[in-house]
Each structure stands twice: as structure tokens, then as C-alpha cells.
Write a structure and sequence with these properties.
The chain has one domain. By secondary structure, the protein is an all-alpha fold. It is flat. It has two helices and no strands. The N and C termini lie far apart (about 50 Å). The longest helix has 25 residues.
Length: about 60
């Protein structure tokens, strides 16, 4: 039970951090040039894996 509680706290803290980061970037509290939106980073990583560009190609 203790392990589950710790994992829930860890997940909640990570989610809170990402939400705070997204909010701060979108409202101008953090410069999005240096700290992009977490949602934009997730979209880019998803696109890399969806198109197969996540690994270097060998020629």
C-alpha cells in the first residue's frame, strides 16, 4: 500500500510540474523560446515515432 501511495504522489507531482510549466509558458511567465510548451515537445516526439524518424537512418 505504501508503494502505491508513493507512486501516486510521484505521478501527481510530475503532472503538477508539467501543468505549471505549460501554464507559465503560455502566459508569458517563462520565455517559450528557451522553455517550450510541454505539449509541443510531446507532439514533436510523437511525430518522430509516428514517422519513424526517432532513430538515425543508416545509409
Amino acid at each position: 500500500m505504501r508503494g502505491l501511495r508513493v507512486r501516486l504522489w510521484q505521478g501527481g507531482l510530475l503532472l503538477g510540474f508539467l501543468l505549471l510549466w505549460e501554464w507559465a509558458s503560455r502566459t508569458g511567465r517563462m520565455d517559450p523560446f528557451f522553455f517550450s510548451y510541454p505539449s509541443a515537445i510531446a507532439q514533436r516526439v510523437w511525430r518522430w515515432f509516428a514517422t519513424g524518424r526517432s532513430t538515425p537512418t543508416s545509409t
